[in-house]
Amino acid sequence: MSLTSNVVTWFELYVNDMNRAKAFYSTVLQMELTDLPSPSGMDEMQMACFPYVEGAPNANGALVKDNMTKPGSGGTLIYFATEDCTQEQNRVEAAGGKVLQPKFPIGDYGFCAICMDTEGNSFGLHSRN
What we know:
Layout lengths: L9 E5 L3 H12 L4 E3 L9 E4 L10 E6 L12 E4 L3 H8 L5 E8 L5 E6 L5 E6 L2
């Protein structure tokens, strides 16, 4: 396979409480999520999409609530791009989450922080500063 774009094209963060999860990510990332219609034949599924820029690099994704998936820590770790991950990290606990590892350097690649959302999912914050 010849790559013409980034290998990740979509991600899903599984949630138990859609309203609580939307409020958490809206508060921490300072952006609104958009409700998506359920895929055909999956009426019980709820989805809320993170904002995206058509044609821009990187992946997009959504919060997903359905009967077949459950949130949790220890699996895939999604990193959200930020200007300075300290800002988002400082909003995590007030929004109901936990900071698992405060901002730390990753050499030439910048900085990261590892947090947990209100649903028990771990996620990362990444910044160059």
